[in-house]
Amino acid sequence: MARLRLGVLGSGAGSNMQSIVDAIAKGELDAEIAIVMSDVADAKILDRARRHGIECRYLDCSPFRTKLDGAAEMKCVEILKSAGVDTVVLAGFMRIVKAGLLGAFPNRVINIHPALLPAFPGVESWKQALDYGCKVAGVTVHFVDSGTDTGPIIVQRAVPVVEGDTPASLHARIQVEEHIAYPDALRIVASGNYRIDGRRVVIGG
Ligand code: GRF
């Protein structure tokens, strides 16, 4: 299997991108990050990427507030393709991606969601889990399909909810597991040793 050429899309701090950078640097993931893009001009993810000498782009998504659509989507696909990207990594990208991007990278758009899907799709899912009274929360890395947080699951990791947890403390513990889960999932994709069977990702065999 050829090494992955990743395009990372994020809107925030970029700690997941960092975990991927670190896994590559340690020789634990056969991949390179070709480009990092953000819909937030001053997002920390762009600073982090620059510090590592990774090409960065701001993606102007107006007039849409929560989705990647229209001209921005076309621009995004064009930039990813011209950077030679084969796998798109959503790492805290706060927009719903649509058919234009998904069609350009079939079964090659991956997302991380801070909950054990299918429980708690959508925003602030760690807070949803806490408010619900869950004893276990977690993280899911999945292929993106046309739904919201519904695609085939590659990796999940559980995180216990402890007495006295706040949304911030639970999210911080979930993020520790995210930084293991994303490189793990990308290693599976890089191995090519899986198949998507309906909505299941069958690993090995
Ligand atoms: C993570 O909690 C991720 O699961 C969610 O957004 C957050 C991004 O964090 N989708 P970071 O920007 O990678 O630090």
CATH superfamily: Formyl transferase, N-terminal domain
- Which oligomeric state applies? single chain
* Principal-axes shape call: globular
Largest sheet: 7 strands, mixed
Mean pLDDT: 96
Q: SSE order, as H and E?
A: EHEHEEHEEHEHEEHEE
The top-level CATH class is: Alpha Beta
What share of the residues does DSSP label as strand, in percent?
A: 25-35%
Strand line-up across the major sheet:
3-2-1-5-7-8-9
Give the tally of structural domains.
1
Rg on CA atoms, Å:
16 Å
| Sequence stretches where pLDDT stays below 50 over 5 or more residues | none
Helical amount = 25-40%
Would you report the number of β strands? Answer: 11
Q: Within the CATH hierarchy, at the fold level, what is the topology?
A: Rossmann fold
Describe this structure in words.
This protein has a single domain, classed as Rossmann fold (3-Layer(aba) Sandwich). Helix content is 35%, strand content 27%. A seven-stranded mixed sheet has the order 3-2-1-5-7-8-9. α1 crosses α6. It starts with a strand and ends with a strand. The chain binds 5-O-phosphono-beta-D-ribofuranosylamine (GRF). The site of 5-O-phosphono-beta-D-ribofuranosylamine (GRF) has 14 residues, from α1, β7 and α6. 5-O-phosphono-beta-D-ribofuranosylamine binds next to α1, β7 and α6.
